[in-house]
Design a protein that fits this description.
By secondary structure, the protein is of the alpha+beta class. The protein is built from two helices and three strands, in the order αβαββ. 24% of the residues lie in helices and 23% in strands.
Length: 84
Amino acid sequence: MAKRSNAPDPNAPDQVEICTKQCGGRCCRYLTVTVPAPRGHADWDEVRWWLAHEGVMVTKDEDGWMLHVQTRCHNLLENNLCAI
């Protein structure tokens, strides 16, 4: 049986490479919240109210319903690194 190594992959990009060149800080520009599936008229009215706001999106996939809010983290620097 081969031993599993916990050593990091030396060819894997580091966090700076990921955030500045690959990702561009996308994950620091929005937040998502799991929401229950709409079941009746009142639930759909609430979803429509969410969608009436700028920067809001509602999605459904195999994991369920999600509310997405476009909002940039105030700790995100211009070079897409975290200031914390």
